[in-house]
Design brief:
CNF1/YfiH-like putative cysteine hydrolases, alpha+beta
Length: 240
């Protein structure tokens, strides 16, 4: 078992959620920082990405990712990206927060540091979603599920827990129609994701149930670390 990965099987697909362990970065980005736009040295990020991909059994060139904008757009991938931004940092990236594919061997990735990485798999398709409160409120999960012929299985990765996530009334109002997702000003993003998945027929939901803000030694956390921190990832793919 790799210290870098939390690995799952999901309806014919593989899912991996990275930790912050087993990399080469230092300071606030210690140690497996996969985010380039963080202030970390690009060479360190490149080495960390190579290590994470190797542990997952992936060729870095097969990993597709985007420039995340906290929206609800989804990029459909028919094949691995040409000069993709994971293998070639600095390459042009689509501005999306969700990815989907029916192509075996293409790994879909989102970067997170409190937001939830949510993987979907079923019917010969997979999707990976960057689920912060804005994408969740904007309908990212609903749009992703609409690309599947039947409700897929889902996996919810490490993210900030209700224990550590206090938000304002304007955020709580966006989820007022969902029962049991808030306790006072503390919002439970995992519960939000689960309610939205269940509402559209998803019955198998695997939740690793780990809080990025609580587990300093295992995960980066934007809120805990005051914005100066690294990024971990969620990946999903169908073996070729």
């Amino acid at each position: 078992m790799s210290e870098r990965l939390i690995e799952l099987e999901l309806d014919g697909a593989r899912v991996a959620f990275t930790t912050r362990r087993g990399g080469v970065s230092g300071g606030p980005y210690e140690s497996l920082n996969l985010g380039l736009l963080t202030g970390d040295e690009p060479a360190n990020v490149a080495e960390n990405r190579t290590r994470a991909a190797a542990d997952a059994g992936l060729d870095p060139a097969q990993v597709a990712m985007g420039w995340q904008v906290h929206g609800a757009e989804i990029r459909e991938w028919d094949a691995a990206p040409r000069r993709g931004g994971y293998a070639s940092p600095g390459a042009e990236l689509p501005r999306v927060d969700g990815h989907a594919t029916g192509a075996p061997g293409v790994a879909l990735l989102v970067l997170v540091a409190d937001c939830l990485p949510v993987a979907l798999a079923g019917g010969g398709r997979v999707a990976m979603l960057h689920c912060g409160w804005r994408p969740l409120a904007a309908g990212l999960i609903e749009r992703a599920l609409a690309t599947f012929a039947e409700p897929p299985a889902a996996a919810i990765g490490p993210g900030i827990g209700r224990c550590c996530y206090e938000v304002g009334p304007e955020v709580l109002a966006r989820f007022a129609d969902l029962e049991g997702v808030a306790d006072g000003r503390r919002l439970d993003l995992r519960a939000v994701a689960r309610r939205k998945l269940e509402a559209l027929g998803v019955t198998r939901i695997v939740d690793v149930d780990r809080c990025t803000a609580c587990e300093r030694d295992s995960f980066f956390s934007h809120r805990r670390d005051g914005g100066t921190t690294g990024r971990q990832a969620g990946l999903v793919w169908m073996p070729a």
